[in-house]
Design a protein that fits this description.
Blueprint lengths: L5 E2 L1 H7 L3 E4 L9 H8 L6 E2 L22 H10 L8 E4 L7 H10 L6 E3 L2 H7 L25 E2 L1 H9 L3 E4 L3 H4 L17 E2 L15 H8 L8 E4 L6 H10 L6 E3 L2 H5 L4
Parallel strand pairs: 1-5, 2-3, 2-4, 4-5, 6-10, 7-8, 7-9, 9-10
Length: 267
């Protein structure tokens, strides 16, 4: 398994040797992550906000968390001292939900993919790490090389992929997949033909990533699919599944960026 993409709390405590980025966030309370960061974070960590930094403005189409503008995102990274080859460690406290979004965005933009802190901030504290409240100064943002996001599709690309035989994976909780409940979007259900692999199945309840056997059990026969397209509600938690696939060597899976929130806007 590609464990080099994970970092254990003890290694961070010993000295990260990387730019640290705090991605804590709550979809239910968008101010919570920043408030928690101010209360305490890993020393030297910058904070990136899901809504402001890791997504673009929502529109009638494209889902609730569309991809950010590539140049703006690269400039945001530059203000954290991050360039295309910079070593980065990202963390959250939501079973990788938001740290994995940063991982996917950076990798998609052609940057060195960040390592994710196994178990998140709570695991860091439990291992003896200490929180800090000092906020690092932003770095000077010079010229940013033009890049574009890759490894994703819109609704037309999704339809083409399905017509070509791609396996579509819904990353939401089973009850949302089955249409038994829908707390966010106006329509319940799932995209026809999709199988369900809930994103929470990648980690334990404490947020630690399963071992190779556990991840393979999570994916089952889906790992053998020629092409895999992953979605969730708005293209955020699907990145946890994409991260787990990369750990297993399937780094060719793509993200339906608008996800269910985009799909149901056409119904």
């Amino acid at each position: 398994m590609g464990t080099a993409q994970l970092v254990e709390p003890e290694a961070v405590i010993a000295g990260a040797g990387a730019v640290l980025i705090d991605c804590r966030f709550s979809l239910a309370d968008p101010q919570q992550g920043r408030a928690l960061y101010r209360q305490g974070h890993i020393p030297g960590a910058y904070y990136l906000d899901m809504d402001r930094d890791l997504a673009g403005p929502a529109r009638a189409r494209g889902g609730r968390h569309p991809l950010p503008d590539a140049a703006a995102f690269a400039a945001t990274l530059a203000r954290c001292g991050v360039g295309p080859d910079t070593a980065v460690i990202a963390y959250d406290d939501s079973r990788l939900a938001f740290a994995a979004r940063l991982w996917w965005l950076m990798r998609s933009l052609g940057y060195r993919a960040p390592r994710l802190l196994n178990g998140g901030y709570r695991a860091y504290l439990a291992a003896g790490g200490r929180g800090a409240t000092a906020v690092p100064a932003p770095q000077a943002c010079g010229t940013v090389q033009a890049r574009t996001f890759t490894g994703h599709c819109d609704i037309l690309g999704l339809r083409r992929a399905q017509a070509a035989g791609a396996l579509l994976v819904d990353s939401r909780e089973e009850r949302r997949y089955l249409g038994l409940e829908e707390p966010i979007d106006p329509v319940a259900g799932h995209i026809p033909g999709a199988i369900n692999r809930p994103w929470c199945g990648v980690t334990t309840e404490r947020g630690a990533v399963l071992d190779s056997a556990g991840l393979r059990a999570h994916w089952g026969d889906a790992l053998q699919a020629g092409q895999i397209v992953v979605y969730c509600g708005s293209g955020v938690t699907a990145c946890v599944n994409l991260f787990s696939l990369a750990l297993l060597g399937r780094d060719d899976a793509i993200l339906y960026a608008g996800s269910w929130s985009d799909w149901c806007s056409y119904l």
